[in-house]
TrEMBL record:
Domain of life (superkingdom): Bacteria
Enzymatic class: transferase
Keywords of this entry: Methyltransferase, Transferase
EC number(s) from the headed UniProt entry: 2.1.-.-
Entry annotated with the keyword Transferase: yes
Name by which UniProt lists this protein: Class I SAM-dependent methyltransferase
Length: 148
């Protein structure tokens, strides 16, 4: 959460692959003036996340969970994209974000990095696994990228 801090009022946050919604719910609590959207394709986690949002009394004006393929989501007009995905999904998502998200959009990835993106920063958590959190900005090139 520290890596996401200081979101301006009215920011739009998307969690790509929101699962059971715990991260999206924490984002909605932490940033009450932002709109959080969780995108999840699997029905059981999707319904679980919606029930969890109701149990936490988070209104749909602040938090919504949508059924959808995170690789087909438009990502336009989004200020922050958060993900906690396995390496194969990260490899697939990278080109999607480069194509669809606006330049400068911040991307925060928990545990898994994009293979060919240069992070703006990397934080190491104080948990048992020393989890890394990677912060990126869409459109920023890797220093080893060559233009031919």
């Amino acid at each position: 959460m520290r890596e996401i801090d200081r979101m301006p009022e009215g920011s739009r946050i998307v969690e790509a692959g929101s699962g059971f919604g715990t991260l999206a719910i924490n984002l909605a609590r932490r940033f009450p003036l932002c709109r959080v959207t969780g995108v999840e394709n699997s029905l059981v986690p999707l319904w679980g996340s919606r029930l969890l949002a109701l149990a936490n009394r988070l209104p749909k004006s602040r938090l919504v969970f949508r059924r959808g393929d995170l690789f087909k989501y438009p990502y336009a007009d989004v200020d922050l994209i958060v993900c906690y995905l396995h390496p194969a999904a990260m490899r697939r998502l990278g080109p999607v974000l480069r194509e669809r998200a606006e330049s400068g959009t911040r991307v925060v990835s928990v545990f898994f990095a994009f293979d060919d993106w240069e992070p703006t920063s990397v934080a190491v958590c104080n948990d048992l696994y020393r989890t890394k959190v990677y912060v990126y900005h869409v459109g920023r090139q890797h220093p080893l990228d060559l233009k031919v």
